[in-house]
Amino acid sequence: MSNQHDPNTLPPKTCSVDRMVTVKEDVEKVLAGKKTATRRNGRYADVGEIMTLEGQDFVVNKVYSQSLGELTDEHARQEGFESLEDYKQSILSMHPGMPWLPQMRVWVHEFSAVKK
Q: Any idea which GO molecular function terms this record carries (predicted)?
C-alpha cells in the first residue's frame, strides 16, 4: 500500500518542478499522454504546481512516497513502460551500480495535461 501524505505535512522539496521530467524519451511520452507519473529519489513538486514541457502545461495532481517493492505493472504503465521489468531495466541502465531494493523509497509525482 502506498504511503499517501497529507499535502500539508510533506517534507521540503529537494529539487524544482522544471527538473522533474528531463530525459528526451520521457518528455515525448508525457507529451503523447503515455507517461502520467514520474518517480524520483527526491520531492520535485507540490500538488497543484505546473510543469511545462515544450509549451504544454501539466499539473501535479498527487505527490506521495512509495517503496520499490510496492511497484506493479500498472505503476510501470504510468511511467510509460509495458511492464515493471521494462521500467526497472530502464532505471538501472540510467543509474549504473544502483541496486533495486524493495525497501528503497521514492517520491511519486502524478500529473495530467492542463486543458486549455
A: kinase activity
CA 46 to chain centre: 13
Task: Record the cell numbers describing residue 69, joined without a space.
Answer: 517493492
CATH number, position 40: 3.10.400.10
Provide the domain count of the chain. 1
User: Which tens digit of pLDDT belongs to each residue from 66-105?
Assistant: 999 999 999 999 999 999 999 999 999 988 898 999 999 9
In a domain, 9, yes or no: no
B/e letters for 68-96, b = 16+ CB within 10 Å, e = fewer, are beebeeebbbbbbbeebeebeebbeeeee
Residues 101, 70, 105, 86, CA torsion sign: positive
User: Is this structure's pTM higher than 0.85?
Assistant: yes
Positive/negative CA dihedral, 10, 112, 93, 15: negative
Residue pLDDT, tens place only, 31-41: 999 999 999 99
